[in-house]
């Protein structure tokens, strides 16, 4: 986990955005919360769907958005300890406890969002074949997501390289076929050696020049903090 600290990193951040000065720290493992804010230029009162929420604050992609920018959303996780963590920390997001693969995402999203436009979708289950199965259950033809954070866990040694490559390429194809643009691929945690996440932006929502601002030319693995300018 890269520890973003305002006093150390504010002036190095590659994509400054409205409201960055009030952020003291990031809570995400790969600075996903900072990417979502920079891609939406510090949007306030956004919305999110978080599949695989884990803990309420530590290594969490929505806590900063919710606590400092007024975002609202729903969280899915199979672990009762995660639910207890969200309750203990008084998180405002609605929590669905259970196996995401058994959830009726269409009904839940229709019941909980007034708009068919949702600002962030996070997909992060274990193992990554479950993340891929979950992606295929998300009602992508009904809802549009401005930003999609998709965890491939490509580095995971428990998977064969064939399976890992299939999941990475097929998940990307599913999203690209629906107009999402892969702007940053094969993002790693603290080194450049463990590609684990792909970040997408909605090409039907954002202007092309705005998307190009964030688009990486290379597919070589890179630590997320380096992609964001924090060498």
Please write out the topology.
Blueprint: H1 6-9, H2 32-39, E1 47-51, H3 63-69, E2 72-77, H4 80-88, E3 94-97, H5 105-112, E4 117-123, H6 128-135, E5 144-151, H7 161-176, E6 180-188, E7 197-202, H8 208-214, E8 222-223, H9 224-227
Parallel strand pairs: 1-2, 1-4, 2-3, 4-5, 6-8
Antiparallel strand pairs: 5-7, 6-7
What descriptive keywords fit this protein?
9 helices; Rossmann fold; eight-stranded mixed beta sheet; single chain; 20% strand
What's a concise summary of this model?
The chain is 31% helix and 20% strand.
In N-to-C order, the SSE pattern is HHEHEHEHEHEHEEHEH
Helix segment tally: 9
User: Whole-number radius of gyration?
Assistant: 16 Å
**Average pLDDT:** 96
CATH class: Alpha Beta
Q: In which order are the strands of the major sheet placed?
A: 3-2-1-4-5-7-6-8
**CATH-defined fold name:** Rossmann fold
* Distance, first to last CA: 14 Å
| CATH hierarchy: architecture | 3-Layer(aba) Sandwich
* Quaternary status: single chain
Uncertain residue segments: none
Largest β sheet strand count, sense and barrel closure:
8 strands, mixed
> What is the helical fraction, as a range of percent?
25-40%
The chain-level structural class is alpha/beta
| Strands, total number | 8
- What is the approximate shape? globular
- Strand content is 15-25%
Explain what you see.
With 231 residues, the chain is α/β, with parallel strands linked by helices. It has a single domain (6-227), classed as Rossmann fold. It is built from nine helices and eight strands. The protein has helices at residues 6-9, 32-39, 63-69, 80-88, 105-112, 128-135, 161-176, 208-214, 224-227; strands spanning 47-51, 72-77, 94-97, 117-123, 144-151, 180-188, 197-202, 222-223. The protein has an eight-stranded mixed sheet with strand order 3-2-1-4-5-7-6-8, sandwiched between helices. Helix 6 (128-135) packs parallel to helix 7. The longest helix is centred in the last third of the chain and has 16 residues, at 161-176.
């Amino acid at each position: 986990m890269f520890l973003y600290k305002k006093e150390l990193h504010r002036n190095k951040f590659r994509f400054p955005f409205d409201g960055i000065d009030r952020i003291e720290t990031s809570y995400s493992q790969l600075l996903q919360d900072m990417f979502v804010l920079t891609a939406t230029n510090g949007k306030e009162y956004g919305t999110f769907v978080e599949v695989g929420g884990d803990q309420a604050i530590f290594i969490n992609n929505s806590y900063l958005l919710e606590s400092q920018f007024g975002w609202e959303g729903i969280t899915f996780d199979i672990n009762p300890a995660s639910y207890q963590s969200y309750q203990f920390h008084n998180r405002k997001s609605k929590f669905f406890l259970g196996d995401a693969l058994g959830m009726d995402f269409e009904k839940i999203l229709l019941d909980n969002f007034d708009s068919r436009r949702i600002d962030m979708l996070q997909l992060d289950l274990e193992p990554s074949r479950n993340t891929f199965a979950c992606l295929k259950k998300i009602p992508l033809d009904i809802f549009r997501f401005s930003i999609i954070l998709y965890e491939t866990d490509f580095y995971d040694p428990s998977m064969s390289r064939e399976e890992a490559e299939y999941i990475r390429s097929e998940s990307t194809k599913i999203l690209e076929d629906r107009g999402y643009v892969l702007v940053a691929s094969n993002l790693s945690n603290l080194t450049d050696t463990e590609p684990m996440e792909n970040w997408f932006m909605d090409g039907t929502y954002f202007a092309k020049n705005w998307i190009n601002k964030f688009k990486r030319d290379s597919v070589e693995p890179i630590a997320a903090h380096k992609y964001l300018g924090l060498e």
